[in-house]
Automatic annotation (TrEMBL):
Entry protein name: Tetraspanin
Keyword Nucleotide-binding: no
Membrane topology: Multi-pass membrane protein
Keyword RNA-binding assigned: no
Domain of life: Eukaryota
Cellular component terms per the entry's GO annotation: plasma membrane
InterPro entries, per the entry: Tetraspanin/Peripherin (IPR018499), Tetraspanin_animals (IPR000301), Tetraspanin_CS (IPR018503), Tetraspanin_EC2_sf (IPR008952)
Positions of transmembrane segments: 12-34, 54-74, 81-103, 180-205
Keyword annotations: Disulfide bond, Membrane, Transmembrane, Transmembrane helix
């Protein structure tokens, strides 16, 4: 009896934390949309807007999933807990698939990023975005000043700076690698929490259906 009650409250509090996580992701996505929308507008495929939209979508999904988990645990509803378990399993599988894809397609993604950057570096429509990025990260063009030497119509301010030989592509790639370590760590921790949530919810469903403590 005590074990069932403990699991019930664990599932409930787990989903409270899950709900707060979702709200945090929505808030972060909204912040990026408002404050950082032009940060990586050097390349439309890798813009902050795309990442922000993804955070907003994932955060919203987590809020819905957490609601089913919280309400299901509180009301001891095997139906709501079942929906929570299925959603959590789907999210886990998608995260696993995304991780495998990122690991196997790493070089392809890097090549696509470099190709996209090469396509915008001498495009006047992207000038302001490039100059802002170059000044903030102290880099010049995709590969360095050579990107502008053969395009005299582009008068980029980084040509007269000390970092004129430092390309922005390597800067972006290094930043992505540094952030990847954090993402992997957070992802592993989040996956462990998800597995615990699925195990606890499944155990609670079995107890409810077998005539455990009922409200």
């Amino acid at each position: 009896m005590c074990g069932y009650t403990c699991i019930r409250y664990l599932v409930f509090f787990f989903n409270v934390i899950f709900f707060i996580t979702g709200a945090g992701l929505v808030g972060t996505g909204a912040y990026l949309r408002i404050e950082k929308d032009d940060y990586l507008d050097l390349c439309d495929k890798y813009s902050w807007a795309t990442g922000a939209n993804l955070l907003l979508a994932v955060g919203a999904i987590i809020l819905v999933v957490a609601f089913f988990g919280c309400y299901g645990a509180w009301k001891e509803s095997s139906c709501l807990l079942g929906i929570f378990f299925v959603f959590l399993l789907i999210i886990f599988v998608l995260e696993l698939a995304a991780g495998i894809y990122a690991a196997t397609e790493k070089s392809k993604v890097e090549d696509e990023l470099k190709g996209c950057l090469n396509g915008t570096v001498t495009d006047n429509d992207y000038r302001k975005a490039w100059e802002k990025f170059e000044e903030e990260f102290e880099c010049c063009g995709v590969n360095g000043k050579s990107d502008y030497i053969y395009h005299p119509q582009i008068n980029d301010t980084c040509m007269g700076k000390a970092y004129k030989d430092k390309g922005c592509y390597n800067q972006i790639k290094d930043d992505l690698k540094n952030n990847l370590v954090i993402v992997i760590g957070v992802g592993i921790g989040f996956a462990v929490i998800q597995i615990l949530g699925m195990v606890m919810s499944l155990w609670m469903i079995c107890q409810i259906k077998s005539g455990g403590e009922m409200a």
